[in-house]
Structure formats: structure tokens, C-alpha cells
Amino acid sequence: MGRGPLGLRGGVAVSVLVVGCSPATTRPDFRPFPQALTTVLTAPPERAISAADSVVRAFGVRVKQVSVLDGYLETDWYDTGTQRSFRDRERVPDLQRAVKLRCWADPYVPGESSLTIEVAYRPRIDPSRVERDLETVPPDSSPGRGLAQRLLDELKKRLGTPQLVTP
Questions:
Q1: Residue of 97, 93, 96, 59 whose CA lies nearest to 81
Q2: DSSP labels, 61-92
Q3: What domains are defined for the chain?
């Protein structure tokens, strides 16, 4: 009857397992810049991303995509001078002031998450290249880095950070 080495039930179980594991994610296929801000929050990843979404919107920055399930948030390009958001294909008047924030929240220990906040800017536009290839980290003194730091500080205040236990 050609049931194969797993038998009928084993084949059905494998089929269900394969269908249940989707490689689809909203996270990009690249890692944050090494200079990205990182902290541990006393909240699970879903709550950390939800709070980041709320804070970013309160800052007046338009969110491009957010997924609490994937622990990821990305903003549109944001001009720190005019405080206006721009979609990817829109012309940004001043590339030196325009930044994009990305947040990754990953499980740390139960009830806590490791949050990474990346701020990126593009010194130039080249339609023939992938956007990520043109992105870089703005200087520490830039308004974009200040925006990322404000986001990090607000999330620490709202969600808390683990307290070290000393003997």
C-alpha cells in the first residue's frame, strides 16, 4: 500500500507540523547595526513592542510596520528637523536629518525581553541599490540618535528594567 517509512499517521503528523511552521516573518533578513541601543526590559517581547509602538506614535513618528507576534517595529523615514514622516519612495528634503527607527524585541528570561533599537540614515539615494546597502548609523550627537535614546529611556520608565540582586 505504499505508506512509506512513517506509516499513514506519521505522514499526517509531519504534514501538520510542516504546515504549522511558516517561515514568514515581518522581521527583515538583516541584523541591527552593532551600534544599536540595547537593554533588557521587565516585559515580554509582545508587550515591549506594543509599548514601543505607542511611544513612537506619541513622538509623532509614523510607523511603517509593527508585529507584536514577531517582536518587530519599523518606522517610515522621519525628518528630525521638520518632524515629518515620509514613505520609502517619497522624496525626503534633507537626507542628513532623516532617520528610520527599527526595534527588535527578543525573549530574554520568562517575563523579560532584550530590546534593540536601531537608528539608520541614508547619506544618499541610489535607486539601483538595495536600501539597506545605503543605510548607516548617524553620529552620536545627531537628533536621530537622540530620538532613539528618548525612546529607550521612555520604555525603561514604562516597563522597567531588571534590578541586580547583590549579596
A1: 97
A2: PPEEEEETTTTEEEEPEEETTTTEEE-TTSPP
A3: 26-159 (3.30.530.50)
Q: Which residues contact 166 (CB under 8 A, 6 or more apart)?
A: none
Taking only the tens place, the pLDDT of each residue in 95-139 is: 889 999 999 999 999 999 999 999 999 998 888 998 899 999 999
Per the structure block, which three cell numbers stand in for 27?
522581521
User: Average pLDDT of 12-21?
Assistant: 42
Instruction: Give me the helices (H) in the chain, please.
Output: 7-20, 45-58, 131-134, 143-159
Asked whether 50 and 61 are in contact (CB, 8 A), the reply is no
Do the beta carbons of residue 56 and residue 147 sit within 8 Å?
no
Tell if the pTM clears 0.70, that is, is over it: yes
